[in-house]
Design a protein that fits this description.
17% of the residues lie in helices and 38% in strands. By secondary structure, the protein is α+β, with helices and mostly antiparallel strands. The N and C termini lie far apart (76 Å).
Length: 182
Amino acid sequence: MSTATSSLSRLEELLPQLFEAPQLQGEPYLRCQLTSKITALVSMEFVLESLLVPGEQITSLPNMSSFVVGLTTSRDRVFCVVDLPHLLGLTSPCSLLQTYQMIVLRISPLLSKPTNPNKELLLGLVVNRIQGVMRVMSEERVANQEDFPSQLTPYIQGSVIDSGTPLPILNLAAIVEKTLNK
């Protein structure tokens, strides 16, 4: 067998693999830093987008809870923006920022009361830093909440250990309910 024939055979064998989508394992989560010491995970199931928003593009609202940053727009949609660390009772570094890193959630599926199915409701969560996407296998999840501040535990639905560091998985339904009930 010539070298050209063996190279051609090998190429025919590898070519289909080039166009196959890899099977990614685990559920996707957006990894975000809440404070200098706490990094958390947000399920990508409800994330519409992540944005960098200059402070002047957020309109403040009078007489609102202190965790409400204001209103902004994206994709021709107006929605409320909250300071997630502050909402969760943590010391927030976000109030000092000139540009906000924001996670935009679709909150309609998270609400206890059904909404108009033609009207998708959005909520912006300002975080200290968005660090990327992480995949978590169901067997990696644990129910341990002892490693986190007590004010954070009502908003945790589990956790994972990443490189020896516990990361809380945030309960978005509880966060949305707190936002709407304040």
